[in-house]
Amino acid sequence: MSCKHVLLNESDYVEHDREDYFVDLTCTNPAKFDPQLDDDLFHAHDVLEELARRGEGVGVRKLAAQTLGLNYNPHGLLRDADLRRIVPPSTNFRDPMHTLLARGGVMLVELFALLNAIKAAVDHFSYEMLWAYVQSGWELPFGKQKSSSVATCLSPARERAANKNECFRASASEALGVYPIVRYFVEAVVTIDAIHPQRRSFLALCEIVDSASNVKYHYGDAGADDLVPTMVQRYLELHVGAYGRQYLKQKHRYSFHMRLYLDCFVQERKHIVAKAMSERVSNTTVHEQSCSTFMLNACYRQMDSLKLDTLMGQTTSNDMLSVVFGSPVTVARRMRSNGLRIQTGDVISTTGVFFFRVHACVAVDSGCKAIVHRLDVVAQPSHTITRLRLVDDTMYKLDTTDARVAQAWHKSGNDIVVAGPRCKKSVQRFIR
Questions:
Q1: Which residues of the chain are under the pLDDT cut of 50?
Q2: Which of 265, 273, 373, 404 is the most buried (most CB within 10 A)?
Q3: Domain residue spans in the chain?
């Protein structure tokens, strides 16, 4: 649920409010918030419904809707008295993907502001320079877009679009892939003091996105959602200190009302399937029925073929490994382990303490394992930068049930530099 006393930026009502009740979108103090309760929303709807029933003019109803902060929908769920009790509005929350990463999201606004600050501080800097840096050997996990694809959001065309809209132009998946690299860039490459306030603001926001990812993959604390208002307040205070209030948008305000466990990437993937099915239907008279039939069949096929632990792509048998393990072994470059997709070359960690480089994916003993090389931590310049080095050529069979693929990494001499926070789970022994 949102608050009921929030007005647009620099509203005259806030300036002349003698009771100091109203706030605008730039308010960063949760102590001033007045959340809208279920009964408040029900009352607002009932008032608007009564005005419509009495046949009041459009001007009267429009003014009432603006005053109450609610658009009246005669076919909306709020009209259903039974649903009000079963699904109260207070159970609705903002999700991290649409609030932080989707079009106009907080991370995209922050990236635009940060890159503008770097432009002002570094001569001849452009998106194209960062694009070349991303292309220079950075690797991303299997299942996300590769660095060449993520780098497209740094192209000159995207830069022009960003300048026009005052917001970084990227999809949610692209933003998820590029922000760890940009974080490394401002921590380890562009280390000048001129952008220190902007750097602190960006890093604070990255912590929020990291927390959402940790919760999604069960690496976060159970009470992480309780910390969201505190984390958002800290970030916004740093943001205002770095840029003022010019970049603050409605989604900055919404971020106070997020629940980190709400993962909408799955729903968005379903939308892709629905769009693909809709394009096949030419008979518009039964469009919804035809789309529903295609959708049910597609979802059934996906669910019927879904396996949480399986090799993916081309597979081959390996006699040498079969002798080593004492049972038949099938090898592939990719696999899905407990729903997590892993491929050869990925850097993975277990508990944030042990790191490995995947050499191969194998199916053995009715389960999928990773054949890995052990990596030692040789340095950790910051909480989000870890320098690793190959221990030796010894290979291990690793149970990847609780493994996590690094956010991004690249080769640096004999070392591998990982960009991203180390997860915080209790240390266990994973090598079998």
A1: 424-432
A2: 404
A3: 6-91, 96-263, 266-305, 310-419
